[in-house]
Amino acid sequence: MAKIGIMGGTFNPIHNVHLIMAEEARQQFHLKQVLFMPSKNPPHKKKKNIASDEHRRRMIEHAIASNPSFAFSDLELAREGTTYTRDTLEQLGLLYPNDKIYFIVGGDSLAAMEEWHEPEYIFKNCHILAANRDDTDDKKIRKQFDYYRKKYGAKLSEIEMPSISVSSKLIRKKLKEGGSIANYVPACVDRYIRFNGLCGFKGPVFEGVPDDAQMIRYLSACLNPKRFLHTLGVAATAANIAAVFGYPVRDAYAAGLLHDCAKYFTGKELIRICGQEGIPLSEVEKENTALIHGKLGAHLAETKYNIQKEEILSAIAYHTTGRPDMGTLEKIIYLADYMEPGRIMQCSPYSLAEIRKACFQDLDRAVAMVLKCCVTHLKHTNIPIDPLTEETYYYYRDCL
Ligand code: DGI
Ligand code: FE
Ligand code: FE
């Protein structure tokens, strides 16, 4: 039997006291794992000003990434209708039949638990861990414990907590007032909030063009770790190819860093955001949303990272499909994206080793080789080929 902690909440946004609460619960009650489970439609909250499910999910994933005992759970986000803890516990019982569930709540929610849907079921099917979020509450918590024990036979324990008072509400207030939330949330969450304009933050992300280190920090706050590593690989590779062909290395590096800067959104989000930003999408793009991130990436590079150089913006915009008669930087990014050191896929009719060599010898021939591999792969996997990919292939195939 293992003990599993459930850390529920709206997480709008997740903050350091959530993380401290979960970690104290884990240590004090020897939990094997704590699942962070954002709620979808809690009965007591209006949804209006809550960051989207996807944004809250990504903020949590970034915030918990460094604790190997923490995991994200979409059990509640994936369930339609009003989110009742009772239903979550029923699902958890089926998923973890041999384990014991510890439900972590803030001491301030304890009193309201009796008004939750079917409190008898809740108290029967989990052990409640209540965190004292303000040490004057101690007596109140114990009184509440006694009451629930007598009335429901509930199992409850107190999590010892340092007394710090941070709430998502306080963080939203600070953001609305243009204040700093540094040290209230993990740095990655602070950056994620600002870059995506969440929780009341309005205003530019950067004054002027950020330097590489700043860009890298913001990219790692938005992209998942695998995508982030790929991004670093593309930037370094692009800079190397640029050096060989006498193209400005710094621009190639920046374009490489930013080429996938919109790659963290789901297909639905990409369509929605392009709609909001007035970026037109073709039917093919709406059907194959993997094609959209270049266009939106160029838009984010311009509006959020304040990049003005046309060459960089169009290299980002066209890096997925390519286009006929590409400029030098467009070719460099198109190639680096395909063959950076993190890429390990099999491709045909050319091997990655052959393509890597060609990239440093003849850009047009290397572009033609990559296009031929892409078209071959898309045909093989029955993915419809974008008209622009096809056009680009016909334009370059004579270079083989
Ligand atoms: O973003 P990356 O994964 O680094 O690479 P990318 O920008 O080349 O995007 C790859 C995705 O784009 C992959 O899911 C396949 C898709 N893709 C590339 N060319 C085409 C395409 N999808 C369609 N439908 N048609 C294309 O021509
Ligand atoms: Fe891409
Ligand atoms: Fe890429």
Describe the structure.
This protein has 400 residues and is of the alpha/beta class. Helices cover 52% and strands 8% of the residues. The protein contains 19 helices and six strands. The chain has a six-stranded parallel sheet with strand order 3-2-1-4-5-6, with helices on both faces. Strand 5, helix 6 and strand 6 form a beta-alpha-beta unit. The longest helix is centred in the middle third of the chain and has 21 residues. The termini are far apart. The mean pLDDT is 96. Bound molecules: 2'-deoxyguanosine-5'-diphosphate (DGI) and fe (iii) ion (2 copies). The site of 2'-deoxyguanosine-5'-diphosphate has 17 residues, from helix 18.
Task: Tell me the span between the first and last alpha carbons.
Answer: 62 Å
Globally, the shape reads: elongated
Any low-confidence stretches, pLDDT <50, length ≥5?
none
How large is the share of residues in beta strands?
5-15%
Classify the helix fraction into a percent range.
40-55%
Salient structural properties:
single chain; 400 residues; alpha/beta; 6 strands; binds 2'-deoxyguanosine-5'-diphosphate; binds fe (iii) ion
Q: What are the SSEs and their pairings?
A:
Blueprint: E1 3-9, H1 16-29, E2 33-38, H2 53-64, E3 70-72, H3 85-95, E4 100-106, H4 107-110, H5 119-125, E5 127-131, H6 138-152, E6 155-159, H7 168-176, H8 187-196, H9 212-222, H10 225-245, H11 249-258, H12 267-277, H13 283-287, H14 293-303, H15 310-317, H16 328-339, H17 352-359, H18 363-380, H19 387-396
Parallel strand pairs: 1-2, 1-4, 2-3, 4-5, 5-6
The structure holds 2'-deoxyguanosine-5'-diphosphate and fe (iii) ion (FE) (2 copies).
